[in-house]
Amino acid sequence: METxxxxxxxxxxxxxxxxxFVLCGGGVGLASSFxxxxxxxxxxxxxxxxxxTVASTLLATELHARFTFGAGGRATxxxxxxxxxxxxxxxxxxxxxxxxLRELVAVPGAVLEQVVYLSASALAGVARFxxxxxxxxxxxxxxxxxxxxxxxxTAVADPATLCxxx
Length: 166
Prior knowledge:
The chain has helices at 4-9, 14-39, 45-68, 77-104, 110-136, 138-149, 159-165. It is an all-alpha fold. The chain is elongated. It starts with a helix and ends with a helix.
């Protein structure tokens, strides 16, 4: 459940973060699926998928740091590395899905390839959301929460001093 403090700090609740993740990650994923198909015309599909996965992971991690999880700025190198780890899993899922498709269908059409690729990407995306929210960007939320719960020490003038100064 989203608290008033998390709203003030810019950290979205789980539902809002997932909606943002779908918009940012889904938009990048959709563009990536077309880029993989286009690039695969000039090189092996697995290589095209690897290149697009690297580029889209860098872009998506930046978007997730800035908008999805409310990190408040650019992604750190640590977050990029951790995000890349989850992207390796997503890459494996999409590759396995395409290998299985080609084992089941001798010459799959472009539409069937897109359906299989996007379905595998969506499945991997849900797992990535959990990893990014609970591991990669969790540190930022916990630091913000610690700062938000610490008492603020302000200098308050002693009333006796104020009376004597007047």
